[in-house]
Amino acid sequence: MRTIDQNHGLIRSYDLRRPGVKAGYTVMYALLTVVALVCLMPLVWVILSGFKDQKEFLRGVQAADKRYYVRFLPQSFSTEGYLETWRTMKYFRYYVNSFIVVLGATVAAVLCNGLLAYGISRLKPRGHKIVLALVMASLMLPATTSMAPLFMNIMKLGLHGSFLPLWLAFGANAFYLVLFKSFYDEMPGSLIEAARLDGAGDVSLFFRVVLPLSMPINIVIAIYAVNAAWSDFLLPYLVLNNTVRETVMVRLFTYRSSDRIKEIEVIRAIVFSIIPPILLFVIFQRQITQNVMAAGIKG
Questions:
Q1: Separation in Å, CA 4 to CA 1, 12, 158
Q2: Residue-range domains of the chain with CATH
Q3: pLDDT single digits (tens) 152-194
Q4: What's the half-sphere exposure (Cβ side, CA atoms, 13 Å) at 257?
Q5: Are 109 and 176 in contact (CB under 8 A)?
Q6: What's the pLDDT tens digit per position in 60-86?
Q7: Which residues pair with 68 in a beta bridge?
């Protein structure tokens, strides 16, 4: 059985000398290119549309025959429209709010789920199988079914308008727990036993040994948590609406709902809201693919 080299892949250069392999590789490459273009086209269209003015966006460009034609590329790439939308929306404050939500949700996702998974996987107290079964059963429930009781509890606790319920809600996730437990199950027990012989307690063992050795799965969970916390709208809207702590997605909704806002300004606002996830993927794309694959194999 042929092994797969990470540097070369399954198909080598000498395999491409065979006509059948070369034809199949060409067809596969062409199909993947088409799929990539189809996936990227909406993103590219939104970004390029932001450089247009309202008239060009709705009607197109007037040609020599006095007729308007829709163009994919804008007439100019002036950034004045983007800057004006940024100033109008006062996006900086909402960016700060979203980053606070993202940071708290990421820390809560790693620590809370990691601690619970560590207890279930390694400490195994009495009743840990029941806890795990309840967590697994929660995966079968739609997230929207818990929204009403969650919001009622937030109001009863007086946490409306605070970041704390968002941190805890985004951090508590059964899927994250399953990934953590799968990773901890594969961790060598000799490392944990060696730390116990040195006098490390359960909590100290987690923070000094288990957590540092779990960087691959920590990165995976952090990426999931960042994307979920940044992109979510409903819970931040219910908790932070009409406060100074509104996130980018809540601000985008209220901005779009205004009657005085033009369509092109909404397009530019959408671009601002998707920039951070795009940068996250571009910077950490290698870690995303490698660590998600490693976590999936261990699971």
A1: 10, 10, 56
A2: 15-69 (no CATH), 90-298 (1.10.3720.10)
A3: 988 998 888 899 999 988 888 888 998 899 888 888 877 777 7
A4: 6
A5: yes
A6: 776 767 677 777 788 888 888 888 888
A7: 62
The pTM of the full predicted model, rounded to 2 decimals, is: 0.80
Alpha helices in 60-160 (DSSP H): 80-89, 91-118, 128-138, 147-156
Query: With contact defined as beta carbons under 8 Å apart, do 18 and 236 qualify?
Result: no
3-state secondary structure at position 162: coil
The gap from C-alpha 4 to its chain's centroid, in whole angstroms, comes to 30
Q: What are the φ/ψ torsions at residue 50 (nearest 5 degrees)?
A: -65, -20
233-267 b/e (C-beta count within 10 Å ≥ 16 → b): eebbbbbbeeeebbbbbbbbeebeeeeebeebbbb
Q: Is 5 strand, coil or helix? A: strand
User: What residue type is assigned to position 97 of the chain?
Assistant: N
At 265, which helix (H) or strand (E)? helix 263-298
Integer CA distances (angstroms), 114 to 121, 149, 187, 246, in order: 10, 25, 13, 29
pLDDT digit string (tens) for 120-158? 988 888 888 898 898 888 888 887 788 888 889 889 988
Write out the two tokens for 69. Answer: 């034609």
Give the containing element (helix H, strand E) for 68: strand 68-69
How far is it, in rounded angstroms, from Cα 290 to Cα 299?
14
* DSSP notation for 183-204: HHHTS-HHHHHHHHHTT--HHH
Residues 181/120, Cβ–Cβ less than 8 Å? yes
Specify the residue for token string 């549309």: 49
Supply 263's token pair: 């369509």
Place of tokens 């727990």: 177
8-state DSSP, 16? G
